[in-house]
Write a structure and sequence with these properties.
The protein is an alpha/beta fold. About 30% of the residues lie in helices and about 15% in strands. The chain is built from 16 helices and 20 strands. The chain binds 6-O-alpha-D-glucopyranosyl-D-fructose and calcium ion.
Amino acid sequence: MKQQWWKESVVYQIYPRSFNDSNGDGIGDLRGIIQKLDYLKELGIDVVWLSPVYKSPNDDMGYDISDYQEIMDEFGTLHDWEELLAGMHERGIKLMMDLVVNHTSDEHPWFIEAHKTKDNSHRDYYIWRPGKEGREPNNWLSFFGGSAWEYDQVTGEYYLHLFSKKQPDLNWENPAVRSEVFALMRWWLDKGVDGFRMDVINLISKVPGLPDAQVRSPDRYQWGGQYFVHGPRLLEFLQEMKREALEPYDTITVGEAAAVTTEQAVELTDEENGPLNMVFQFEHMSLDRDLDDRTARAVKRWKLLDLKQVMTRWEKALEGRGWNSLYLSNHDQPRQVSRFGDDGRYRVESAKLLGTFLHLLQGTPYIYQGEELGMTNVAFDSVEEYRDIAARNRYRELVEERGMQPGEALQLVNVGSRDNARTPMQWDDSDNAGFTSGTPWIKVNPNYREINAKQAVADPQSIFHYYQQLIQLRKANPVMVEGRYDLILPEDEEIYAFTRTLDDDRLLVILNFTTGTPVFRLSEEITVNSPELLISNYSVDAAEDLRQLTLKPFEARVYRLH
Ligand code: ISL
Ligand code: CA
């Protein structure tokens, strides 16, 4: 395996709108981030992934970009951005920008031109089709609900939008589109950015002819993915991007890859000639969802055996071939402690267990803002409090199309909503959690008086300090980066245990994912002489026999076996 700084790094994701507001307008901004750089330095992270800060009408909170070379007014100016980058670099922190180029905003000058006339010079920047018998050109559905096509009155044709109708898909078949994208990437790289997180990058190549998705039954989800996920020219486009934009620079890249398979991920991240460093896969994010049921996307209880099976498959498939990214949270997902841990009695213990899990797998760990504090889901009492287009659309679909009771629909939206991750960062116990002196754009989670950064930084037993320790351990122990992953106790429904091995250095990771007290038994095949405890979320009796341990609720331990 090649040594690479991006394998050794820990990435911290900032969702700027919700991170820190410096001027009291209720919206987080770049100067707000600058004020918190020392906090990030103290945590010890190496790289920041900054969710989009470009000019945007915010139909999808910045993922709809109307100017790739300007900063959104509410967030500040390019000058602020330069100061932010300098502040990061001074502290040895690298910056990854979010690159959203599957689509633009419909307010981007390219689209404004494109829909003026059919023969406009920018028409081909987007994907236009005439209707079919008075209907949409095909049956594809948008990720946010409804058809993926919008009729344009002006030119009498439809345009494709896999996300909201204010996010028209770019036509990557057009070489002019590709060269515009590569040029804007070089523009940011020349300004000093260290890499990109690439939004839904595996959707950029569509199967020519845009065939109808197969319909199984009326309420089954027939979203059309087979014709646009990892499409026929994806690798070619990304190789071109690597050549034309990335190669001359020393970058970190991660592709967001909805529905990606392990085989595809190997192609994308291949050590020798893959176009990307790593991808975000989604299989573990689907364990509590019924993705087939398009409108309800019913939430079901996830199972530890499934989690083991999925994570082990990803670890093994990419071993020595590609590279994994490790995450349980981001701005699109509910809070991990509420979803995979216990946000009540064992909030602190389970948050530390989940952190141990992520940092001990092989791959590059990603921390989402507030995860290091154990921030939890929020339950809003009315749909009006939601800001996310996906949550609002989903509520409307459930009530209007499914006839669900409003209370029930709200409950479903509550558990799954992306806004769970988007409530303001909880800095201290003052009003609005110290996020803003004004009115926050989205409600603060009422638990901020107890859960906040000020408390966490002051308390040596906090989740924050535990994460700090995990990050330091990674720097001191190459086995955490390079060591081979091997699952043990594959059939255990309560304990997730594995080893990491690099030459004669071996770590043993023991994680009790339950509120119970199961017994961990170590097989004789694994040799142990004078084990050394590296980290744990409870105090551990040194005399305990590693061959047979009674674990406490959500207990996590990592040993070095000699
Ligand atoms: O959010 C999801 C599930 O809750 C996903 O379906 C998500 O829409 C998908 O992973 C793509 O996400 C990315 O692109 C979207 C944007 O809304 C997301 O915030 C972004 O992470 C469109 O740009
Ligand atoms: Ca502000």
